[in-house]
Amino acid sequence: MAVMTAEPSAETEIDPAAHAEAVVRRAGTSFYWAMRRLAAPRRRAMFAIYAFCREVDDIADDDGDEAGKRLRLGQWRGEIERLYGGHPRGLTARALVPAVEAFDLRKDDFQAVIAGMEMDAGNRVRIADMDELTLYCDRVACAVGRLSTPVFGLPADVGAKLAFAEGLALQLTNILRDVVEDAGRDRLYLPADVLAAHDITDTEDIEQVLAHPRLADVCDVLAGVAEIHFKTAIELAAGCDRDRVRPAMMMLQVYHRILKRLRRRGFADLHTPVALGKGAKLWVAFRYGVL
After folding, report:
1. Domain extent at residue 29
2. Spans of the chain, pLDDT less than 70
3. Looking at the structure, do residues 115 and 155 belong to the same domain, yes or no?
4. Predicted TM-score of the model (pTM)
5. How many CB atoms neighbour CB 267 within 10 A?
6. d(Cα 128, Cα 195) in Å, to the nearest integer?
7. Could you tell me where the DSSP H helices lie in 184-289?
8. Do 75 and 217 fall into the same domain?
């Protein structure tokens, strides 16, 4: 791969790596300390990947108009092209330069993440079937894993399988945890084919969907799918070098605990929030990030 150089800009006096780390710090992610444990080049690469994901996700979740959000995401598509063409402009893209160079990160995976954000950028979201749901999860979660596993130092074949299984498990858990919150933004990620199989055929009125007596059955189905992917991901991670897979294992354990709590609460009561407390997160960080 050709060596890339950052194009001069008004931001050249700001260190791109420091900018990316600041984005991670401000986000308050519980996985900051898992990333901090990585060797310096890998740590800086993960900070840069996280900063990119944070920026495009913030665009998709912005309360602005759809056209404006799509324009900004389109600008990020152009920035990724400039990154791989050797002249990135923004701080985050410039922070990605050494990561792309050192770990051979694929341009298609960055563009897939943006495509996932474009699916979220609309004023309403509906998912037609399980194939579209899998595509959405692949874009917003599995692609992030495919960018991350080379940085962790995992072999390409195992890393790709882990990224797919873990990405699906985590994103399905997010969807099940946030059904009510997403509905408030006219977003429904539960696929129409699974809803229809449970006699929920009108997805236009999202409040009626939430009130349907068989919605809990739909959520149970998706929770079962997530559990299968968690099992696969944990088995794959167990076969990897322990130190290299620590960040992935921490995320797996945090989200697996959230899914278990969701299933214990049940899906007939979607309005009672489920979260992992600070103490539980610290325990996971210690158990899987230190020991």
Report:
1. 15-122
2. 1-12, 30, 282-283, 285-291
3. no
4. 0.92
5. 18
6. 10
7. 192-197, 206-211, 215-238, 246-265, 278-289
8. no
